Amino acid sequence: MRILVAPDKFAGTLTAVEAADAIAEGWRRCAPGDDVVTVPMADGGPGFVDVLHSSLGGELLAATVSGPLGEPVPATFLLAGDAAYIESAQACGLALLPLSDDGRTPVPGVAARASTYGVGELIAHAVDAGARRVVVGLGGSGTNDGGAGLLAALGAVATPSEALRGGPESLAGLSALDLAPAKARLDGVELVAASDVDNPLLGLRGATNVFGPQKGLVSDSDRLAADGALTTFADLADRRVADHRGAGAAGGLGYGLLLLGGVREPGFDTVAHAVGLPELVAGVDLVITGEGKLDWQSMSGKVVSGLAALAGPALRPCLAFAGAVQVGNRELRANGIEAAYAMVDIVGADASFGRPRESLAAVAERVARTWSR
């Protein structure tokens, strides 16, 4: 048999590359004669650059940029031909914010000061390196500034002069804005926002109200203040663009990219096109995907649902591996997934979290006994 293994990351335990390798290792232990092809996947969030590099090759270029609170942080972007791929989480990710006492969520209110300035710096580095197409993966951000910091890093001018750099807290005092220098900086460059999020910038379905709580904007007053600041910003930048699909992605980072003439593409589609995934699916007998937790979010715009959507028309069965599965068999099959296998059910929670690579390989070995001919 010819098997395509194309998982997302298992958040908190395995990168997509590590997960793909573990599944392939376990499968080959049971079925050494099978041809197992690994294609790690991502949808624009953490791991975006590594996944594309593993498939496209190209050159990883290092840069030091501003983190969400202004501290210098290391980052890399991928240059493949004249296309550059940037992972916004490397410059403004949740992992770069100080955590509250629970060790999982950011300190309350910290996102009110967090900036996307470093993402703009990464785009500038990519353009200076010769990129004529810049794809920015959106996901895992710890910011809620509408992309204002990104615009400032690319040359946008504001009154007061620092209003764009200090998160929504600073945007509240914005009185004038000129985007022309930032647009000129990217003249002739195709800009793509890679994200599965289609929320607008403002309102009940906007960046602040939907995603703010996971970034530390917990109280109603914090969210009201942040959304009000973004409204002030949008009124001066372009209120119509604030309603576009994806403007609310990554705390409004999508809005900043759209203001500069960028287009939104689903993150999964961006990666699938780059690695030639439809052709790979058509050339195998079985498709395997997976992620850390398989739930209802997995069924909408994520890697698992994207693989299932490609496998169905090609008449290829699609299996899903996950740390935990929270969707029933009937619903899985309705979404194109033939069967799903949970690590916690097969090897137990302690092994799944304590030895994730070995555990995932063991699950793959067990499943191969059923599915390999």
Automatic annotation (TrEMBL):
This is Glycerate kinase. PANTHER family: GLYCERATE KINASE (PTHR21599). One of its GO terms (molecular function) is glycerate kinase activity. Transmembrane segments: none annotated. Belongs to the glycerate kinase type-1 family. The keyword Transferase applies. InterPro entries: Glyc_kinase_flavodox-like_fold, Glycerate_kinase, Glycerate_kinase_RE-like, Glycerate_kinase_sf. It comes from the Bacteria. NCBIfam families: glycerate kinase. GO terms for biological process: organic acid phosphorylation. The keyword Kinase applies. Keywords: Kinase, Transferase. Pfam families: Gly_kinase (PF02595). It comes from Jiangella alba.
